[in-house]
Amino acid sequence: MRDSWVVLGEFVKAQGLRGEVKVRSEIEDPENFLLPDISLRCGDDLKPVVVQRYRPHKGGFVLTLAGCDSIDQAQALLGCELICRSSQLPLLADGEYYHFQLIGLPVFDCQGEKLGQLTEIMVTAAHEIYVVEPASQGQDELLLPVVAAYIIEIDLRAGKIVVDPSGQGGVPVADRAELSS
C-alpha cells in the first residue's frame, strides 16, 4: 500500500475568540491529532501544523493549534483539512482497519459475484454500516451492518471484501436449516 495522505479532520467552525477551531472527524482515536509531522491542507497548499491540544465537543473536536491565536486566524482555516501520511498512523490489531483502507474496495458475495464497491462507512451507535454502490445500474445501494454474519472476509492484499448479504454468515443454503434449529 502506498503512503497516501489521510484526512484526520476538516475545520468547520471557529470556536471562541482565542483561535480554537472545531473539526469534524471520523477518526476513532483523537490522539492521532497529536501525531508529529501532520499538515494543514487548504486547497493545493500544504503547510506543517502542530496541534497543541484537543477536546471533544458536540460530536466533533475542538483543537488548539500552535500560532492560531485569534478568531480571525481560526476563520481563515475553515474548509481546510488536517492530514498526515498513512505510514504515521499507529498499527492496528488484526481484524481492525482504518476507513481509508476500505473505501473504494470491490465487494463480492460468497460465490464470487461482484456486488459493487464500498463507497461509505456510516458510524452508528450499534455498529458501522458499509454502503456498497451497486456494480450494475438500476440496483439499489446495499447497506451491510459490520457484523460477522454479513462481513465474511476483508482481504487488503487481494484488495477485496467478501460479504453475505443474507446475513447467514456464508453458510451454504443446505446448512442454514441447522442454524435455525
Domain module count: 2
What count of helical segments does DSSP give? 3
Shape: elongated
The appropriate CATH architecture of the largest domain is Beta Barrel
Which regions have little confidence, pLDDT < 50, spanning 5+ residues?
A: 173-181
Reported for the largest beta sheet, the result is: 7 strands, antiparallel
Superfamily at the CATH H level of the largest domain?
Answer: RimM
Structural class category:
mainly beta
Helix content: under 10%
Mean pLDDT level: 88
CATH top level of the largest domain is: Mainly Beta
What is the CATH topology descriptor of the largest domain?
A: Elongation Factor Tu (Ef-tu), domain 3
Radius of gyration: 20 Å
Helix and strand succession? EEEEEEHEHEEEEEEH
State the oligomer.
single chain
Strand content: 35-45%
Characterization of the model:
With 181 residues, the chain is mostly beta strands. The chain has 2 domains: 5-87, Elongation Factor Tu (Ef-tu), domain 3; 99-170, Roll (SH3 type barrels), CATH 2.30.30.240. The protein has helices spanning 71-75, 99-102, 173-180, and strands at 5-15, 20-24, 39-42, 45-48, 51-57, 60-65, 81-85, 106-109, 114-123, 128-134, 142-145, 151-155, 160-163. The strands form 2 sheets. A 7-stranded antiparallel β-sheet has the order 4-3-7-1-2-6-5. The longest helix has 8 residues, at 173-180.
